[in-house]
Amino acid sequence: MKKGVMRPGHVQIRVLDMDEAVKHYTDLLGMIETDRDDQGRVYLKAWTEVDKFSVVLVEADEPGCDFMGFKVVDEAALNQLEKDLVDYGVGVEQIPAEELKDCGRRVRFTVPSGHAFELYADKKYTGKWGVSSVNPEAWPRGLQGMKAVRFDHALFYGPELAAVYDIFVNVLGFYLAEQVLDPEGTRVAQFLTVSMKEHDVAFIHHEDKGKFHHASFFLDTWEAVLRSADLISMTDTSIDIGPTRHGLTHGQTIYFFDPSGNRNEVFCGGDYHYPDHKPITWKAEDLGKAIFYHDRVLNERFLTVLT
């Protein structure tokens, strides 16, 4: 079933004030600024990521997410996936190489939930930050804040989850790892993976199209998540909820907001998924425990604050 998509590659996030945003994502989250372009966009990566960037910040009048990109194995896979999307009835847009600095051509498409995604095969390989590729040390000195390990996934809110599922699973080769079903058996949340991770992208039903819930960054340990909570308080950063544990995915998590109101997550742990694993199902009436395993209730911000 594999179609050539490897992993999440990048996300472009709209911010209201670039200086404040850069300070948040570098000083607090601990990402590394790698470049800027003539459009004023700022490129960031986490220290273990081998490509030049995984987060692109762009100044705009309202917060949110412009698109999420996935890296594919090679140009042949990109060509085939583009053809498969078109054959499936999905419109595609060609984004030329270097529109994002040091990134090859991208194939962009919008799914029925109103979210834009793109596929690409090439991006400048820079290696892990601060450690050698020969006899590397355990971690680099000089990391800031939460010391984000990688950009892990994004969660989007929107309608038509079944149609979104069809594109990601039938065309792009993702698997359904976990789901939430309402009493009628309709899927109201879906966690999709193209790797061994518990999810690489997720969707929750919402009547409005194109809503961005959060971008998530992986940390090594529960202690690192707790330390992140301390840093959130030390910097008077707006917090959503946590530290706590998810029922879905079983990851240990904390949610907070960047200065523009975009939600971030840092987490550790979580389940793994192989192609022969059947999806885990949660009942919608137990959604509180599914999302926040300890409190077993949903806080209003988590459901209603979207960008």
From TrEMBL:
Q: Where is the VOC domain?
A: 7-122, 150-269
* Keywords for this protein: Aromatic hydrocarbons catabolism, Dioxygenase, Iron, Metal-binding, Oxidoreductase, Repeat
Q: Which NCBIfam families match?
A: catechol_2_3
Q: What is this protein called?
A: Metapyrocatechase
Complexes and interactors? Homotetramer.
Family affiliation: Belongs to the extradiol ring-cleavage dioxygenase family.
Which cofactors does this protein require? Fe(2+)
Which SUPFAM superfamilies does UniProt cross-reference here?
Glyoxalase/Bleomycin resistance protein/Dihydroxybiphenyl dioxygenase (SSF54593)
What the entry lists under InterPro entries is as follows:
Catechol_2-3_dOase, Glyas_Bleomycin-R_OHBP_Dase, Glyas_Fos-R_dOase_dom, VOC_core, Xdiol_ring_cleave_dOase_1/2, XylE-like_N
Give the Enzyme Commission number: 1.13.11.2
UniProt superkingdom: Bacteria
Its ancestry begins with: Bacteria, Pseudomonadati, Pseudomonadota, Gammaproteobacteria, Cellvibrionales
Which reaction(s) does the protein catalyse, per the Swiss-Prot or TrEMBL entry?
catechol + O2 = (2Z,4E)-2-hydroxy-6-oxohexa-2,4-dienoate + H(+)
**UniProt GO MF annotations:** catechol 2,3-dioxygenase activity
